[in-house]
Structure formats: structure tokens, C-alpha cells
Amino acid sequence: MYYSFRDILGKRADVNIVVGQRGNGKSYGLGRIVLDTYKRNKSRFVYLRRWADDIRGYRAEQLFDPLYKYIQELFGDGYTVGYYHKKYYLIDSDNKKVDCIGYALSLSEASHTKSVVYSNVKIIWFDEFIQMSGEPALRDEQLKYENTLSSIIRDKTDVVIFLLGNTVSKFSPYFVKYGIDINKVKQGTIVTQELPTDDDKIKLRVALEYCAYNEEIGKKTSKYTTSRMISTGQWEIPLTDDIPSVKGEIIKDKLLFTVKVPDLKDDVIIGCFLRSSKWFTIEQEPQTKLYYNKAHRRQFLIFRSVDKISNYYHLSDEKSLNYHTYNDIDYLLNDIKEDTNIDVEKEIFMGRVFCDNMFTADHFYHAWTTYGKIGLRNML
pLDDT tens digits, residue range 318-372? Predict the structure, then answer.
């Protein structure tokens, strides 16, 4: 019934990325793998999360709760896995610690892990690597990720990395980091590739599996939710039909920038609009009991197809020296932030963005990853 790591493990990759619908058994399956590996050769694992709160208290303690019966099958009646001071221990039937089987780390505390030795680690388990909508961004996350890997791996050559995530957002820097164009990965398939390293003789092998839709789980969850990610495993991209509205609100759309989608036969232009919404409610002042009009405001981004390019900010793969034309998305977003105080990247990662349809969302994501790899000087 649940997801199996059998196929992706067959790719013998150094980095294994698994994405799919929530509740399909990704964490359960990897939990079995780390237990089996420890049972076989006493090697340990690192459980990695983005935030320190995710490895504290109950959030970390319950990681192996679903595997209670399996732990007893492997190690004997009465055995459990306990969590103490950021370490996972095998606990015997007398409630005594038998051995440390794993460690827990967070990227937000990466600076505290540099001098710690993580002995005999063979598996790194990065859970929930795709950022949830509304989740705050971790500053310098990619640098913290690299430093954490360096602290764990050091001079080892046999460590295997697993990144598990739900299909909540395509806008993950880890897809870009590992050279994955998630738009080209179909549900139910695995893609692999080899990336160069500092040593010309060594390649980093990466595999990504977009889990097949589990109909049995989907039917159970669809009774309680309309989320595409939870019920079907499709990417959760808010559409304009989902935009909240209030009766009598005043709406203004301002074009922020346009994007020419690369690698298409026909020219497709995506426009990013800032939607400002304002409305009033009648409120009563508690002290004076007088009524007054209270103003409410909110803003979010909307992506939709357009016919004309922006006169101020336009992203294109065409070689141009016009001051308003960009070939690198980072330059464009930085200029927009400096001129308008709008952090487009933050709005996207916080989930305050809507698209007119799934095609627009896919086109923009493709442009985002493509222009992020193009150096400005290479285009001029």
C-alpha cells in the first residue's frame, strides 16, 4: 500500500530525492532503512531538519513511533527507540540505553555543529526539504546546508543522502542545486544524472523520484481535504480561482515585470502583477462606543499570460542592452526590491502568489530555473 524505496535505491545514487503526496509512507520507509542498516553493520544516521524547533521535544521523539512493531521484530520484545539530547538511542526492555543509532541536526543551528564528530554515519535523512507555504525563509540556507554536510561527512566517501518532501511547491533551491528541472519529471518516474565535482574523476550521482499516485491513500484523504498535494500528489500551486475576496473591496493590479519563457517555439510572455486589495468595515470604538470605518489592505502576486512586455522590468534570453531588459533573474529581482521594496522571491516562498492556470505556473518555474543559471555577461 505504501511507498517503497526499492526502485530509487536500485539507481545507486549518492543523493536520493523523493517527492510525492503526504502520507504515502516516505518517512516510514526510510525509517525502516536506517534501522535495517544499523542492525546490519551498526552504522548510524543523521536526521536533518530546517529549523531547531523540529528536532525538539515531541516533534523529534515521535519519529519512530509508527515503527514500534518493526523495532521489536528487529531487536526483540520490549525494545524501542528513544530520543535524548539530539540523539536517537536503542532502548532495551529494561529501559536502558543500548547504543546511539542516530543524531538530529537542524540547518538553523549549523554554526554549532562544525566541531562535533558524528561517528560512523552512513545515511543523512533530510526531512521536509521543500519549504511549506507561509514558512519563513532560512537565511543563507544553501550555505548552511553545505556546512552541515561537511561537518557530518568530513572525509567519508560512502555516505548516502536522502531528501524527502511533499509536493507543496516547485520553488525549491534544492532542485536547482542538484540540476533537476522538476517540470520534466512525470509523476511515477525516476530521473538520474551525474554532476561534476572538484575531482574530475569523481561524479556526484543524483536520483529523483516523483512518487506514483497512491489511489488508496488519495481516496481516504480526499474526503477531508481539497489539497491537490495531499489527495493526488500533484504540485500545490494556488490558482486565481482560489484568491480570497471580500464584498465591496477595491482591487488594483500593477504589472511588476514580464518574463519571456525560454525554449518554446511560440513566444510566451508571463506577467507578474502586484494585486492590492482594500476594503472597509464598520467598527465600534470600545471606549467611546462610536462607530468608524476601518480600512483593511492586503497584497499578493498574480502570474498570468500577457501580450506585451513590461516597459520597466523584462526578463529575456535575447541579447539586449536596453536598461529594462534582464538576462539574469537575480539581477531583476534585486532591482525590483531596491526600487519598489517588493521581495518577489520571499512572496513566492511564503505562498502569497496565484497563477491563472497550471500552464502559467509551469512556464514561470521553467523560466525561474533557466534564468537562474544564465550569467548576465554570458548573454551580452
Answer: 877 688 888 888 889 999 999 999 999 888 877 788 888 777 887 888 888 788 7
Question: What top-level class would CATH report for the domain 6-232?
Answer: alpha beta
> Degrees (nearest 5) of the Cα angle 103, 109, 114?
70
Instruction: Report the alpha-carbon distance of residue 157 to residue 220 in Å, rounded.
Output: 42
Domain ranges of the chain: 6-232, 240-379
> Phi, psi at residue 193, to the nearest 5°?
-160, 165
Q: pTM for the full model? A: 0.71
Interatomic CA distance for residues 102 and 68, integer angstroms: 17
Label residue 139 by pLDDT band (50, 70, 90).
confident
Say if CB 345 and CB 289 are below 8 A apart.
Answer: no
